[in-house]
From TrEMBL:
Residues 45-112 form the Protein YjdM C-terminal domain. InterPro entries: YjdM, YjdM_C, YjdM_N. Belongs to the YjdM family. Gene3D superfamilies: 2.20.25.10, SH3 Domains. This is PhnA protein. Pfam families: YjdM, Zn_Ribbon_YjdM. Residues 3-32 form the Protein YjdM N-terminal domain. It comes from the Bacteria.
């Protein structure tokens, strides 16, 4: 028996298949198999070179980045250790020495 994905709305594991649809009996959400595959692909976060990033990786900044609300700049080549991947526009939460907690976009870093 194939393993069906959890519901994207309520995360219920009790999903079932009805022809081309996946259905959640807990919340009633319906979605297609293609949407489930697309969501799985979208969950993979890649750096500027196309390498897959994981929680805890060390990355290097590939472009000077201005910090909003201050005159600070994150310089090219700055190493950022122990990143945490999150959902949203900025996909990386991290702490940079001398600047503090920040959110970065994965397109401006490369895996070290």
């Amino acid at each position: 028996m194939s393993e069906l994905p959890n519901c994207p709305e309520c995360a219920s594991e009790f999903t079932y298949e009805d022809r081309d649809l996946l259905i959640c009996p807990s919340c009633g959400h319906e979605w297609t198999k293609a949407a489930a595959a697309e969501a799985a692909d979208a969950a993979i976060i890649r750096d500027a070179n196309g390498n897959e990033l994981q929680d805890g990786d060390t990355v290097t900044v590939v472009k000077d980045l201005k910090v909003k609300g201050s005159s600070l700049v994150v310089k090219v080549g700055t190493k950022v250790k122990n990143i945490r991947l999150v959902d949203g526009d900025h996909d990386i939460d991290c702490k940079i020495d001398g600047i503090g907690a920040m959110q970065l976009k994965s397109e401006f870093v490369k895996k070290a």
